[in-house]
Amino acid sequence: MASANSAISGLCERLDLLLPPLLSTQRSSWEQGICAQALLESHRFFVEAQASPKAQNMPYDFAQWLYALAHDSLVRQAPDGRLAVLLNGDGASDAGAVDPACIGETLYYLCAREANDAAVPFPPPRAAVSDSLCDGVEKMLRYIMESCPRAPLDSNEPTSPDQLLLSHRTDAVQIWSDTVYMLSPFLASAATFRTLPPSYRPDTPASYDPHALMEKALRQVDLAATVLEKATGEWAHIYDFDQREFKRAALWGVGNGWVCAGIVRILNILACPILSASESPDQRDVYPDLDQLGLGSNGDLRPLLRQVYDILLNTLRACLRHKLPGTALFHDVLDDPHSFVETNLAQMLAYTIYRLLDLHAHSARFRALGLPPLFSDDQVVWEQDADAMREAARAKTDRWGFVRDVCGSPTFDKPGTAAEGQAWGVMMEVAWAQYSWHKQSASGK
């Protein structure tokens, strides 16, 4: 395990390599979101570690990039509220219903920071659909809550609105394994943002209360698992509600990675500060209010959170059973030895494990959620697995910074390069560095 300082310097070296290809790619709506998330998690770690990027000889400012990415998501926001979907035309060329929500946590972070510090304005684009960043992300939320296509699990049974599954797409009613990542962390971010004191957020419409949003974030994961999760823990990729059949029953590796990473991001959103002490005028970390979310010590959503947590552990264990001996990588379709050996799932699972280990070991707020601790054997083996997967992904990174042999853009069905592969390389490295930094800081090294 690296020392605290070497974890930061090692991360800087990797960011210098990985970020140029990431920031140079053409990006679809979800890729804009995952790029922003990689930079947001980088920014938050550097703020926590009090390690200015410029002091590390990194000639850039994460906050400037975050605003630029958020700004362009509003430049390309469709009239229906979906972010980052306008290319040439009215947005119909991007049929994602929940993909555009992927950038939501970044927007809520910027909204909180702007409301909290008049010296840090984030003006919206001129002639955009939305009047501010907060207006833009709230329009995205309104689309999800009111306009996104949805369907019941069983078309023959009466279903309450909270039991409807939100569709991944606008042109068909489908649930994808990817949906867990694109949708639920966004809803959790919207929920936690609403629990901030008024001075930390602009005027927010009262039509959605934080408890209801948090319940929907968790319920959507649970409902999706009912449709897509196999008895062995892996997830099929796509189920079509219009046809009432699987459009793609394959156990797509990266789809399972989206599930694991999406759930661990929900846990991180609940446990970590929305703004750090150095970003707030009263010099204190600003956390979400778990009581308002129904997740306090007697919260009614705790059993549902436990179900979602168990889904994460089941899926993670199932994926790790498919890790290829000698390479620490995975086949593109987990149980298909004829599919190509793919890089990105290893990055996504390493990220998930580092975040999970870090939360259990170093976050009192996470432990206050009442989730059971990991078995000691799992902790040891999973950390070894994460280290092996990280090294395997690093070995796939070339001198130009491209992570090779991920599911390649634009079709994601053959080995290549992709914005999401670059972003997950960054997020894996940040999760490793933050876990290492916490571990060594706790030991005084």
Q: Tell me the quaternary state.
A: single chain
Uncertain spans, ≥5 residues at pLDDT below 50?
Answer: none
The tally of structural domains comes to: 1
What structural class do helix, strand and pairing data support?
A: mainly alpha
Give the overall shape, derived from the CA principal axes: globular
Query: Helix tally?
Result: 13
Distance between the termini: 11 Å
CATH third-level topology: Glycosyltransferase
Query: What is the number of strand segments?
Result: 9
CATH class: Mainly Alpha
* Radius of gyration of CA atoms, rounded to a whole number: 20 Å
Task: Provide tags for this entry.
single chain, mainly alpha, Glycosyltransferase, three-stranded antiparallel β-sheet, 9 strands
Concise account of the structure shown:
Helices cover 50% and strands 5% of the residues. The protein has 445 residues and is mainly alpha-helical.
SSE order and pairing:
Blueprint: H1 4-24, H2 29-48, H3 62-75, H4 104-116, H5 133-147, E1 150-152, E2 164-166, E3 174-176, H6 179-193, H7 210-228, E4 238-240, E5 245-248, H8 253-271, H9 302-320, E6 330-331, E7 341-342, H10 344-362, H11 364-367, H12 376-395, E8 406-407, E9 415-416, H13 419-443
Antiparallel strand pairs: 1-2, 3-4, 4-5, 6-7, 8-9
Helix pairs in contact: 1-13, 2-3, 2-13, 4-5, 4-6, 6-7, 6-8, 7-9, 8-9, 8-10, 10-12, 10-13
Please describe what this structure looks like:
With 445 residues, the protein is mainly alpha-helical. The chain has one domain: Glycosyltransferase (Alpha/alpha barrel). The chain contains 13 helices and nine strands. The strands form four sheets. It has a three-stranded antiparallel beta sheet with strand order 3-4-5, covered by helices on one side. It has a two-stranded antiparallel ribbon with strand order 1-2. It has a two-stranded antiparallel ribbon with strand order 6-7. Strand 8 (406-407) and strand 9 (415-416) form a beta hairpin. Helix 4 (104-116) crosses helix 5 (133-147) and helix 10 runs antiparallel to helix 12 (376-395). It is globular and about 55 Å long. The N and C termini lie close together (11 Å). The model has no long low-confidence stretch (mean pLDDT 92).
